[in-house]
Specification:
By secondary structure, this protein is an all-alpha fold. Helix content is 77%, strand content 0%.
């Protein structure tokens, strides 16, 4: 009997290095979560629970129903954008994408490492409609459009916030240069897509050939190439979908501004401006992006909103009150997502196992999907 040296034992889990990185993330998530809880308690005590309850009472059941509806419309926009991001011959209907988006948002919000499994959760939720890898590819495409609009939204919000106050000329110049660079990168990205330049992967390949960062680029250059092919293939096949997807992603942020504006009309003194609501939502988006490790962004979102509202002189405790009210609707839709998970016979363990299996395929070179 002869042995075949090419046969190897199949992998059954993450590699040691990836498992160590995951453990470090878990520790960091635990520390940040405890820190966030401490901040949350501080703001509750500082503002006063009676004041917060009074603000919640001003919203009323009708107001809270409207807040829930606005957030549903935001999820609806993401679901529509994802529906348009699916490649032929597969297709998804809104009755498929909308529940999956609710499930993914629930995972992303309530778990310390939810951002790592939210995309997999969406793909598993529609596994009866398409293979897992196809679902993940369509989710990645939608996420790219979402990231583009979020980055633009954050940049404009930060620019508007800093330019609204008296700052030294050096700060103003720095901000102008940074905003200019962001817009230049966005324009360059659009040109790359239109001309289908493989600029990033070719740069990674040249660095790898010259011996720079071999450990990073050994597999990283192939992932970058796959990333480029994913976008270019989508543009070649569906160029007319670009604008509708971008409009849906923009509507997601616009509805967030409307939600804050409505809350401020109920809890703040005087009539709030749309500009102030825009600043609050943009800062909130920055915090939600930076502190994804903290479930519900507890504590840190209150801190950011409180800083903005105090700077804008909107009233004592208004920022913390707004975020606490918004957390109420987040909890509602998170529980809805959990209910969908249970009724569909899914489990959180299935989502995390799906993430591990997909990572093993990529690490083991088993990925056969071609987006070229």
């Amino acid at each position: 009997m002869s042995s075949d040296p090419k046969v190897s034992t199949p992998r059954t889990g993450f590699s040691d290095s990836k498992q160590k990185n995951l453990n470090r993330l878990k520790i960091a998530a635990g520390v940040f979560t405890l820190f966030g809880i401490g901040l949350f308690v501080y703001f509750i005590v500082n503002v006063g629970y009676e004041e917060i309850l009074a603000g919640i009472a001003k919203i009323g059941f009708d107001g809270f129903a409207l807040i829930l509806a606005l957030y549903f419309l935001r999820l609806f926009c993401r679901a529509c954008a994802w529906k348009l991001s699916v490649y032929a011959p597969y297709r998804l209907a809104l009755r498929d994408t909308l529940p999956a988006v609710v499930i993914g948002e629930a995972m992303s919000t309530m778990l310390p490492l939810g951002i790592l499994v939210s995309g997999t959760a969406k793909a598993i939720a529609v596994r009866k409609k398409m293979p897992l890898v196809v679902g993940l590819s369509s989710i990645a495409t939608e996420n790219l459009f979402y990231s583009l609009m979020t980055g633009l939204f954050i940049a404009v919000g930060g620019f508007a916030f800093l330019r609204s106050f008296d700052l030294p000329d050096g700060w103003r110049l720095t901000v102008d240069v940074l905003i200019g660079l962001i817009f230049a990168l966005i324009v360059f990205g659009f040109v790359m897509v239109l001309r289908q330049w493989h600029f990033a992967s070719e740069l990674c390949e040249k660095l790898y050939e010259k011996g720079y960062g071999r450990r990073i680029f050994e597999k990283g250059r192939m992932h970058v190439r796959l990333f480029e092919n994913l976008i270019y293939a989508f543009y070649r096949q569906y160029p007319r979908r670009f604008l509708p997807i971008i409009l849906f992603e923009a509507a997601f942020h616009l509805l967030g501004i409307c939600e804050i504006w409505f809350i401020l009309t109920r809890v703040a003194d005087g009539i709030p401006t749309f500009f102030n609501s825009f600043l609050l939502e943009s800062i909130s988006r920055v915090i939600l992006t930076m502190f994804k490790l903290i479930p519900f962004a507890i504590g840190v979102e209150e801190a950011g909103a409180q800083f903005v509202t105090e700077t804008l002189a909107l009233g004592v405790g208004i920022g913390a009150m707004v975020t606490i009210i918004r957390k109420g609707r987040t909890v509602f839709w998170t529980l809805t997502g959990v209910l969908l998970i249970v009724t569909r016979g899914l489990s959180i363990r299935e989502f995390t196992n799906g993430l591990k299996k997909e990572e093993e395929k990529r690490s083991g070179g088993e990925e056969e999907t071609d987006f070229s």
